[in-house]
Amino acid sequence: MNVPGITVIVCAFNEESTLPRCIDSLISQTLEDIEIILVDDASTDRTFSIMNEYAARNPEKIRVMHTDVNLKPGGARNMAIKVARGYYIAFCDSDDWVEPDMYEAMYSQTIKYNSDACYCLYRKVTESGKIFPDNSTHYFPTGTINEQERKQIIAFHTTFLPKYIFRRDIFADNDIRFPENLWYEDIYVAALTVPYINTVCCVYKPFYNYFIHAETITTNRNDTKYHDKITVCLMLVEEYKKRGLYERYRDEVNYLYFRKGFIHAALNYIINSSNPKGEAVNEMKRALLSVDPAYRNNCYYRRNIRFAIIDMLISNNISIKLLKYLLKITGYNI
Questions:
Q1: Under a CB-based contact definition with an 8 Å cutoff, are residues 54 and 25 in contact?
Q2: What is the pLDDT of residue 277?
Q3: Which of 198, 213, 210, 34 is nearest to 121 (CA)?
Q4: Are 155 and 12 part of one and the same domain?
Q5: 157 and 79 in contact (C-beta within 8 Å)?
Q6: 134-175 pLDDT, tens per residue?
Q7: Cα 262 → chain centroid
Q8: Residue 172 domain-assigned?
Q9: Region class of 181: left (phi > 0), else alpha (psi between -120 and 50), else beta
Q10: Which of 15, 120, 303, 319 lies 20 to 30 angstroms, CA to CA, from 40?
Q11: Nearest by Cα to 36 from 14, 76, 6
Q12: Which of 201, 217, 233 is the C-terminal boundary of a domain?
């Protein structure tokens, strides 16, 4: 049996309306040497049936898996990683879609440069068809990664996994798996792969389409979701310690925690919660202090005036409702 060039993993929970578009974009890839693993995460709608229908029509490309209980994306992805056969591995969210030549272009680059990972640009697309380009300001460098670049990647890079492909051995050889039963699992894996990646390439084209729709906005209003972000970030710190990597990358990991586990978590909560509470933000601050009591002395903290100002506003107990209002009228975007 031939080994596929890329295995693309798609996990879905009750996505019967958007899943066909996602799968269509994958089976239409110009890269023929592709394996597609579809994981139904205990859906209660027709998601599993749709997957099986596509697999029946495309048995040479599609494999279907099913969970009996909902594991959230991390647990479902872990199931697929165990059986993935491709030289490289990719993740596509079930309500998104990709351009026809995405994986051929990225796979060609990785083969050309013998890279451990490759990334592309992405764009956000709304239900009305409005397009927002990738506004990320920090990318992986390309070529062979030196130690200083590796530190910059850990501290600053975006943790949106679907725009990357990784050599599958990165996961297999280093026992990298997603946190299960938690949201924000991408933060953990994106940061944990970095110490094991030595060479990177890029295709500077917006190949990945990230769909923004009403259900996404509704989901983001979950008032308790920030707990998962705190938990995932704490798990990452502990995993770096367990692997003997923490002392080497202390400043970078701590700043990543500050950026994702506190600033982003607090702002997402304040902006999206229907009734944000000061105690919830205080909980996030206590978790940050448990990891790094002197976080304001971090060299990366001192370079980010915008985050420092927000930190001061939150820490000085400015009214959460007032802060929400200020963020809204200024159109603040994290």
A1: no
A2: 86
A3: 210
A4: yes
A5: no
A6: 877 666 789 999 999 999 999 998 789 999 999 999 999 999
A7: 17
A8: yes
A9: left
A10: 120
A11: 6
A12: 217
HSE-CB of 262 using CA atoms within 13 angstroms: 28
Q: Looking at the domain assignment, is residue 1 inside a domain?
A: no
Which regions of the chain does DSSP assign to beta strands (E)?
A: 6-12, 34-40, 62-66, 88-91, 97-98, 117-126, 131-133, 143-144, 164-167, 199-212
Q: What is the pTM of this model?
A: 0.93
The values of phi and psi at residue 168, to 5°, are -60, -30
In this structure, are 98 and 238 located in the same domain? Answer: no
Of 192, 217, 242, at which residue does a domain stop? Answer: 217
203 and 226 part of one domain: no
Question: Using the 8-state DSSP alphabet, how is residue 38 labeled?
Answer: E
Residues 139, 264 within the same domain:
no
Q: Using the predicted structure, report yes or no on whether residue 35 has a pLDDT greater than 60.
A: yes
Question: Does residue 139 fall inside a structural domain?
Answer: yes
Q: Specify the pLDDT at position 219.
A: 44
CA distances in angstroms from 122 to 98, 133, 135, 183, listed in the order given: 9, 7, 9, 21
Judge contact between 168 and 193, C-beta under 8 A.
Answer: no
Convert the pLDDT of each residue in 69-85 to its tens digit: 999 999 999 999 999 99
Give me the helices (H) in 157-263, please: 168-173, 185-193, 214-219, 226-242, 250-256
- Axis-axis angle for helices 226-242, 265-272 (nearest 10): 170
Q: How many residues does the chain have?
A: 334
Residue 284 belongs to a domain: yes
Q: Tell whether 81 and 161 lie within a shared domain.
A: yes
CA nearest 156: which of 249, 247, 231, 226?
A: 249
What is the total count of domains within the chain? 2
Where residue 114 sits, what CATH number does that domain have? 3.90.550.10
